[in-house]
Amino acid sequence: xxxxxxxxxxxxxxxxxxxxxxxxxxxxxxxxxxxxxxxxxxxxxxxxxxxxxxxxxxxxxxxxxxxxxxxxxxxxxxxxxxxxxxxxxxxxxxxxxxxxxxxxxxxxxxxxxxxxxxxxxxxxxxxxxxxxxxxxxxxxxxxxxxxxxxxxxxxxxxxxxxxxxxxxxxxxxxxxxxxxxxxxxxxxxxxxxxxxxxxxxxxxxxxxxxxxxxxxxxxxxxxxxxxxxxxxxxxxxxxxxxxxxxxxxxxxxxxxxxxxxxxxxxxxxxxxxxxxxxxxxxxxxxxxxxxxxxxxxxxxxxxxxxxxxxxxxxxxxxxxxxxxxxxxxxxxxxxxxxxxxx
Length: 342
Known about the structure:
Low-confidence stretches: 1-36
Largest sheet: 5 strands, mixed
Order of helices and strands: HEHEHEHHHEEEHEHEHEEHHEHH
Shape: globular
Strand order of the largest sheet: 2-1-3-10-4
Helix content: 40-55%
Radius of gyration: 26 Å
Mean pLDDT: 90
């Protein structure tokens, strides 16, 4: 082998080695760059795919994919596939789930300030409700979700709110004012505020699982319950309760909760994309909820349910003793701020 051939071979090998190192370096930069890597987020909820919550989360996924230029997407697990809401919150803390839709009842076990939402007639109407949630008070509550009362982190991040409607009474006989509930047995959730609200109306509160309610209504174990129109319809409780009074004694939002572990590993751009996508999906979901609630009321009436307009001032007055009992300390301060907000 002559000298020129040797030089050619050595140069060729050096060139290959240099190219390989260059491509390896470029691959490492690409893998470490948050903007160029693909990220799939696990999102869980306990509702069916037909529910406005699921459709809202699908919209969130679409918006996130668009905002991130295709670098972030979501995989949704509906119908409790990853556990009930409390289990999902625990998995979020551990980093096993990235985001979940949960109600405020289980959140109250992690951040007691969220028990504020169970207070009756906290909001004047739907417009007031969303003014609060979209404003400084709603943002502050989401921020508080990240810190326990002792100052330690919860491992949770409050991301936004979805609409869960307002709860009203449905019964076996007509109700338009609180005194009409006297002597009735009304099913409530395992919530002392809900129980005291029913008692303030003159009725007896009966706590029982939702799955047992249809039979209890049919057999006369209870005379009514309370829920939003779509739930009243989908549960088919209208088959045994043909009266529904729109008293809207509580408006309790759903909350989108993220993992603190996930959040701490995101850059500012990624966090911004998630926050903006959730804002857009919240507007989309609350519109769907309003449409579904109106359609549910029409369907209920078509199935023989009489929908009554409540004497709302009388219901509010009856519930004042509940506010006085349960709106204490920090909840009293927040309730006062909410009532003072236009």
